[in-house]
Design brief:
- Three copies of one chain form a homotrimer.
- The first copy, chain A, has a single domain (about 5-315), classed as Alpha-Beta Barrel (TIM Barrel).
- Chain A is about 40% helix and about 15% strand.
- Chain A is built from ten helices and eleven strands.
- Chain A is globular, with a radius of gyration of 19 Å.
- The termini of chain A are close together.
């Protein structure tokens, strides 16, 4: 039985950019944490605490400064409570203005986040499950300003939480499946090369080491036969710069015209095998609740859950 | 507990332009009317009796003149029967040629509809649940000819049914989320301003008052923080011109690449709060059976149903 | 009760181009074959044994020559086993490089397939359910090279299997609903005319008669009111050239922005009535398991199954 890197972490996709909401309440979320636990998930990562005017907790800072809508429920509190109940580590995802950093106003993005991080740490910092920070600003290339965003925000998170909590980022590889704005196409012709990827991320990692602890590249933007090469580069670079290397193994299918439904088990298996082959220690996924859960509105997700469990059971017997 | 305008009406999306069919028979429809009733829905609105060659009842007029396909089942009869069983008011949606009025041939659209309305009233006019007319030709702006279409058809409907039945329209606000033909984009840059909206609809309402009784604007095309302004304008204009002002609170999510799945409960809640705040008396939705029903093929809809019910229960205790 | 051509065959959509995977294992597939059997399906057609680097069985030829991924399960073996258990005929779909024949390198596509067909026949040729070949390269027009591909590959399949097995193709009619690359549009303006269709397919059928036994045109690319004309042409041409004429009655809905969910029962009914009217003997569908099955992740499919069964039951009583 070929080894795969097991998935022991998942994002929580609230607020979502692009995945329709399941409209779960506390009871449904509790059931889903239970289903996560049953396959060994010990880490949950709130992908973002807010996006534009939508937020996950009643943030005075974001309501006042950004005109955000007061949420109907405090999801940060809910997820911390469930993490505590199910013995999981909770990572808090930062706020994404959806605006400043896209226009090069990095300092505004940073300043807003600093204020929100202070507020969050004051409100929830004493909660036992609060174990890490996730820097939600996702990038694929060594773009202007991003090292500074990651390094400054990562450092700020670490400092405020006494140096005890881990800081995680999850960039992507700028491959053939990177979505193209305003396009119906699934694939593009001008993806990055492994050499470019290595060169740029060597530089980024050098700049963020110490401020960021873990890098978990999204594994869905390059073709399946290209993935081993990229994973090897990622692992090598992380080792070189003293970062931990996880894989963010996407459980939705990028090859289909419906954007997005659960991935084919065989594709996930190919990706997790490739991660295991280069010694990636931990897999996290975007994300369990829509794409891999027996509770998902997408029944394909429940079947993926079963296929994954069956494989893991046999692998562990070997 | 903040007040929301309750949803007490829904469209029935047969024939559908863009929402895949659920393939329900009489038994499933009966169950769904029951689920509607359980949350207080007392009004069902057939969104259109036909579109191009598809029709909901065996219309001699439309089969002969438009080459429509004879339907496999008489949905108008079915929906009237279920409305009677569940004590609901049924609104009949007019025929949409999908052709004439898009080409400026308004008189042809009107004449065809007059013949169909006569036929319908003869066939179904004695049915006790038949309580209103819905003018299916949807617009967002004061475009050429539309006042005449609304006024003539509304008047014709009222006259033929003895002045007893209400006439409803459901235009939209031409905002940032108005779909752009042939585009993969979700948002656009050149939505209408509140001032333009007010000016144009002041004129439309002046022209249709007396022929149309109720206006229920679709609430999904403007951003959530813009909605209160638009709702206030709509209410003010309706009051000025003696129309009743409902809100058509869409229960599908316009912000997602999948077009369309159920809306996030928090978004619906924001919209219904905004409607209550300006005194909108009644909410209807497009539409219950796909997007808010426990019977929907989209399980997110069932969860939305539960979230809505829970909120309503607490609100009513207050 | 108007007669319809019954659906007694279905494609098995593994590997899929565009339909998200259901992640079924052997147990779920067994259940689905049972559901097929219950409505009279006696023929299953593997739509393709491989596409690009994905394959359905551990093909030494394709792994070595094309760098294909070794699959996690041998689906050809599984489908043959289930076909035997449920007394069905299995058609094997050829390999689609997704490359050579799109670039005019027809001979490479043929040679690769010949090697794979030899391998397949050696591995599975003795299996009692192996009853036919499906040439997976789909076309709509008399394009350069395609007669040669069909004739050569069909002949090769027939020869290797001792002339006992049938060879099937499933082209489409190049109508208004033919997808346009990189377009969000559902319809186009420049579909083929019946006259062009007839002229081109007269020529194609003349060229492939003897090498191909059955032609089952996809019925979803022309408008519903145009279909009778096309079906009549297809039947006439097939009779003229000594081919059997089936219809591939698509059970997904081409008229919706979600690509794709199950078709509306009334639309399927219109298409199957049109097929019966010109004497088409057998209906197959693309495809049962996603779009017409009570086991589908799309619940609309289960309702379609029920509507179809009900209609068939009444029709058979007549």
């Amino acid at each position: 039985m070929e080894k795969i890197t097991p998935i022991t972490g998942t994002f929580l996709d609230e607020i979502s950019h692009d995945i329709p909401h399941q409209n779960w309440g506390p009871v449904e979320w509790d059931q889903d944490f239970q289903a996560m636990k049953a396959i060994g998930i010990d880490t949950v990562i709130l992908i973002r605490s807010g996006h534009k005017r939508q937020i996950t907790y009643p943030s005075k800072v974001l309501i006042e400064r950004q005109g955000c809508h007061r949420p109907v429920v405090d999801l940060v509190d809910l997820f911390l409570t469930l993490s505590e109940k199910h013995q999981m580590q909770f990572y808090f995802g930062t706020y994404d203005s959806g605006y400043y950093w896209h226009r090069g106003e990095f300092q505004k993005e940073i300043d807003l986040n600093k204020a929100a991080i202070e507020e969050v740490w004051e409100k929830y910092g004493s909660r036992p499950a609060f174990k890490g920070w996730y820097l939600t600003q996702e990038v694929s290339r060594r773009t202007k300003g991003i090292i500074d965003v990651y390094a400054t925000m990562g450092r700020f998170c670490k400092d405020i939480s006494g140096g005890e909590l881990s800081v995680l980022i999850s960039p992507w590889m700028d491959g053939m499946k990177t979505p193209i704005a305003a396009s119906g196409e699934i694939y593009r012709q001008d993806g990055i090369t492994p050499e470019e990827h290595e060169k740029e991320w060597d530089e980024v990692m050098a700049g963020i080491a110490g401020a960021v602890d873990i890098v978990a590249f999204q594994d869905g933007h390059v073709d399946f036969h290209e993935l081993p090469t990229y994973l090897e580069i990622n692992k090598k670079l992380a080792d070189r710069h003293g970062l931990r290397c996880w894989t963010n193994s996407e459980t939705f299918d990028r090859d289909m015209p419906i954007r997005f439904l659960p991935i084919k088990w065989e594709k996930l298996w190919l990706k997790l095998k490739a991660a295991a082959a280069v010694g990636v220690e931990k897999g996290i996924t975007f994300e369990f609740s829509h794409f891999m859960s027996p509770n998902s509105a997408y029944q394909q997700a429940g079947h993926l859950y079963n296929r994954y469990r069956e494989y893991l059971a046999v692998m562990e017997q070997d």
